[in-house]
Amino acid sequence: MPAAAQIILERMTDAQEGAHRAQNTGREPFPKGTVIFMNKMITKARKLYGVGVLVLLLSLIPLPADAALPAQSAAAAREEKYADVVVYPGGTPFGVRFGANEVTVLRLTRFSSSGVEVSPAADAGILPEDVIRSVNGVSVSTIGDVVRAIETVGEKPITLTVKRKAKEIPITLTPEKCDENGSYRLGVLLKDTSAGIGTVTYIKDDTLVFGGLGHGICDSESGKVLEIESGYISNVKIGGVNIGKPGAPGELCGSFDSEKCGKLIANTEVGLFGMYSVPRGNIGQPVEVAEAWEVSEGPATILCTLDDNRRHEYNVEIAEINRDSAAKTKNYVVKVTDERLLAKTGGIVQGMSGSPILQGGKLVGAVTHVMVNDPTTGYGIYIGNMLDEMNNLL
Question: Residue 151 and residue 198: Cα distance in Å, rounded?
């Protein structure tokens, strides 16, 4: 599935390296033998150059984090920002469907025209996953836009501008009349919506608002978070699990309920936010939200739902914590340790994104990504980052 940047003017001494390690990791500030080395260095400096150089020498050695921080800053680091916040932990799957504001070629098709099987799109060089940006210079964003443009020109040549691997390519072709219904076709199956499955992280029962996924839905080419103008959510039934393997992430396989159960509010860098249309049943007991400084490396649990369609709690370990307060995502490295979950999924799989992480009886974050080469390990987000974003939206 980030480390603080440092400006290095000169090569650090062993003592400086140790002090920086203390600041950045909280581990022992100096490696074995370094204190003895420092004492010898200081004694030699005093004898050879006097007190002035000794003061300069000491000024170059940064203090460990605890010593360097004034008492007021240390107190600020332990601010209780979420002391009065309680939420209902999720762990249940949800489906989201939204308008993608673009028309994508799913696959090429053939149809009968004047008794001959044809595919104008295939003959012209259109490929699956091409995104149709315009027809004869007119922008299109829905399947309806494309169909109306084709019907308008009939059997005259048209030019489609398609986006393919970040490049825009003009392709000219001529629609053919379908023997079956008399409509003009190109021989393509199109889509203008996207859908996916994720896991609910938490629910605010008083407002029916929820946060999930722990990361945004991004454009596959640019990697940027998609701007979603509208969308809805549905309940999902998990029908199977594709087990994850090194180099081949697994996934939860599920089907959407036909009825909508809420609406999508926003797609953001730190998660998907929505609102249920009716109160949720069987959501368990509320839990407190952990402050960032309360989270520690060590045992934790996650909640998720697999193919028995019941929420279960599984053991994990928070292996690393990124303490940079500016980091919005990838705040934890999470490793699955529960043999039951490893047997069922191989670790973290697609669809588990958003699974709440609990430690010490408090909600501390959500699973967000799986490491492709090690499906037992992935990243997590600190819960406060999701709550802050939700508060900005509402």
Answer: 38
Residue 159 has pLDDT above 80, yes or no: yes
**Is 219 noted as a catalytic residue in this protein?**
no
Contacts of 115 (CB under 8 A, 6+ apart): 179
For the stretch 290-323, pLDDT in tens is 999 999 999 999 999 999 999 999 999 999 999 9
Q: Which DSSP category does 325 fall into?
A: T
State pLDDT tens for residues 181-221.
888 999 999 888 778 899 999 999 778 999 999 999 887 66
Catalytically annotated residue among 14, 307, 338, 388 = 338
Query: Among 178, 182, 140, which Cα is nearest to 159's?
Result: 140
| Cβ contact 216:96 at 8 Å | no
**Would you call 177 exposed, middle or buried from its count of C-beta atoms within 10 A (0-12, 13-18, 19+)?**
middle
Percentage of the chain beyond pLDDT 90 is 59
**Is the entire prediction scored with pTM above 0.70?**
no
Point out the catalytic residue in the list 134, 353, 355, 369: 353
Task: Say how far apart CA 231 and CA 330 lie, in whole Å.
Answer: 26
Q: Quote the tokens at residue 368.
A: 């967000």
3-class state of residue 79 by DSSP: coil
Considering Cα of 382, then 388, then 389, then 394, what sign does the dihedral take? positive
Q: Based on the residue annotation, tell me whether 338 is a catalytic residue of this protein.
A: yes
Pick 258 or 165 by higher pLDDT.
165
Q: How far is CA 175 from CA 25, 78, 122, 147, 188, in A?
A: 64, 67, 12, 11, 11
Residue found by looking up tokens 């992480």 in the block: 357
Span 109-137, mean pLDDT? 94
Lookup result for tokens 């999720």: 90
Q: Which of 215, 234, 355, 369 is catalytic?
A: 215
Question: DSSP for 94-155?
Answer: EEEEEEEEEEEEEEE--EEETTEEE-HHHHHT--TT-EEEEETTEE--SHHHHHHHHHHHTT
CA-closest candidate to residue 275, choices 201, 214, 209, 231: 209
**SS3 call for 42:** helix
Name the token pair of 389: 């974003």
Q: How far is CA 198 from CA 38, 61, 82, 228, 267, in A?
A: 54, 48, 25, 16, 13
The answer to whether 215 is a known catalytic residue is yes
Residue 70 confidence (pLDDT): 41
Structure tokens at 352: 């588990």
> Percent of the chain at pLDDT above 70?
79
